[in-house]
Amino acid sequence: METIQNLPKINKKDFPLLENNFNSENKIIYLDHAATTQKPIQVLAKLDEYYRNFNANVHRGAHQLSTKATEEFENARSLIAKFIKANSTKEIIFTRNATEAINLAARSWGEFALKENDEILLSVMEHHSNIVPWQMVATKNKCKLKFVGIDQNGKLDIDDLKSKITTKTKLVSLLHISNTLGCCNPIKQITKLAKQKGALVLLDACQSLAHQKLDVIDLGIDFLAGSGHKLCGPTGIGFLWSRKKILEEIPPFFGGGEMIKDVYEKTSTWAELPHKFEAGTPAIAEAIGLAEAIKYINNIGLDNIKEYEKHITKYLFEKLNQIENLEIIGPTPQIDPNRASLATFYVKGIHSNDIAEILDSKGVCIRSGHHCCQPLHRHIGINSTARISMNFTTSQEEINIFIEKLKETISFLTINS
Ligand SMILES: Cc1ncc(COP(=O)(O)O)c(C=O)c1O
Question: What pairs with residue 270 in β-bridges?
């Protein structure tokens, strides 16, 4: 059996929750990193430091606390810009989460730019966050939604995409890595096809940002939605990136303090980027905490993370494939070497909720259900799956324990075994 060494820079003790027993005899085994990641002590300490030492509103006060809070908040913005290789810090708009980032693109850009009979191209594997906002815009602006399917290997069907993209397509909005199938979509190839038809591309990078390097310019995309809590950062913080030219052209969606230049009784003018899109007091502590999380990830190195996760994913697949009646959905690591370090599966005759509940009683946290991907589950004809999702903290030993407990669970739930 291959022995997989933990990443040298990972100290499990950095993650207090992963050292916790809760109600179990042993430490919990957390395998739900695609839903949200655990937070290292460095992030917890930064949140504490902000509230203890320099809690103040940003961009407003003339006092030193506000100056310090503003400096840290704006440094967080620059760090995010560098993290995704954006051309300018002004192109990063803070939001509450990735869902809000996609809604912002849909309301500010979509409602402004889309005309009757224009088409928006999505895929059946999209998270609801990248479907529902476009349904709302499509209804309002009388546009059409089209969906790209998946191929026999559980990857995006590129031929289907080619057949559905036309000069009527104004936006292709896709996830980078599927939170359910785990496949990594060939974004560079897709942006090339989109540009040929004059369409913009939005990338939902929720499941890729913490797992591989990403360069918005090299990918050729026009919008990117990111989420802090999936990057070892706090909840309540996400961001939208877009090109300065686009952001300057489109109207803001939220109105209020902070986003204005001048307010008159009946009209207002807008602040410069990025503030034009950030009405009200932002999530200051959360943005600063997210910057600390990105520093933590940068210190480990995304190339090291990607390499490590490749090994544990291959190992997990080998182990799961040995279990009778268990089917994994999505491409194998051999078919998609860039796939996510997660596996979504079902066991014939057993509901995934039962598997997740029994595993939970054994101290193993996994997810079950539709994972906010109802269209995908309908497309493949299964209403519920179980998902185990890993990250750089997941050890080979944890995978072994999970497999052992999964086998016990299946055997317990199988009638006539
Ligand atoms: C692919 C994908 N897109 C969007 C989201 C929504 O992210 P957030 O919770 O930050 O709104 C998720 C969260 O699970 C996701 O996995």
Answer: 260
Catalytic residues: 372
- Atom number of ligand 1 nearest to Cα 178: 1
C-alpha–C-alpha distance, residues 370 and 391, integer Å: 21
Look at residues 241, 266, 298 and tell me which one is the last residue of a structural domain.
298
What is the Å distance from ligand 1's center to 230 Cα? 8
Provide the pLDDT confidence category of residue 416 given band limits of 50, 70 and 90.
Answer: low
Q: What is the pLDDT of residue 113?
A: 98
Is 6 a domain residue? no
Please state the domain count of the chain.
2
The DSSP secondary structure of 252-295, one letter per residue, reads PSS-STTSEEEE-SS-EEEPSTTGGG--SS--HHHHHHHHHHHH
Residues 104 and 227 in one domain: yes
What is d(CA 243, CA 221) in angstroms, rounded to the nearest whole number?
Answer: 9
Same domain, 393 and 263: no
For the chain, state the CA radius of gyration. Answer: 22
**Which residue, by CA, sits nearest to atom 14 of ligand 1?**
35
How does pLDDT run across 74-107, given as a tens digit for each residue?
999 999 999 999 999 999 999 999 999 999 999 9
pLDDT value at 417 more than 60:
no
Same-domain check for residues 274 and 326: no
Q: Which domain holds residue 18?
A: 12-30+302-413
**Whether residues 52 and 97 fall in one domain:** yes
On whether both 330 and 279 belong to a single domain, the answer is no
Distances (CA, A) of 147 to 123, 124, 160, 163, 244: 5, 6, 9, 11, 29
